[in-house]
């Protein structure tokens, strides 16, 4: 019995030391990730942030917390998610793994964005807050077509730049040109005949 008690006390002592070290480590987490130069420390602080997010996402599922507490929790979750993304980018910059590719974003999967407020997500009971639920129920506004989409498919054919390469168009143009030439010749001949007739009338008047 005494031996078991000693083992239990030793385990308890190690656990207490671990919790003290963990608390001290958490307190030292810098607000700016760039102050961290070691990958293992960055990973540890990232894990701390994930624990905080998980805890708060669990808490915010309780609609009985009240509107103000739910709003505060939702703001904290969004802030922590952005902080986690900054740490992940910095960890990659100092030679660590790329969490954006290897680690799916399961933490913020429960969050939902408003079409008019990209980048801010509502979690759990926050989606049923007054004024928020109505916005989610509204139809998303129709997105304006980008200029690139509007002019998609508009090419040289649209502006007629390649018409000269179209045999059918060339044939029609030739036919129109021949017809126009014939009309011009006919009008010229009519003009000559009228002019000759006028001269003949003048001569007749002279002899009279």
UniProtKB/TrEMBL annotation:
Keywords: Nucleus. Signal peptide: none annotated. The keyword Acyltransferase does not apply. Gene3D superfamilies: Helix hairpin bin (1.10.287.660). Its main location: nucleus. One of its GO terms (biological process) is generation of catalytic spliceosome for second transesterification step. SUPFAM superfamilies: ISY1 domain-like. Pfam families: Isy1. It is found in: Nucleus. The keyword Transferase does not apply. One of its GO terms (cellular component) is nucleus. Belongs to the ISY1 family. PANTHER family: PRE-MRNA-SPLICING FACTOR ISY1 (PTHR13021). This is Pre-mRNA-splicing factor ISY1 homolog (Trinotate prediction). It comes from Myxobolus squamalis (Myxosporean).
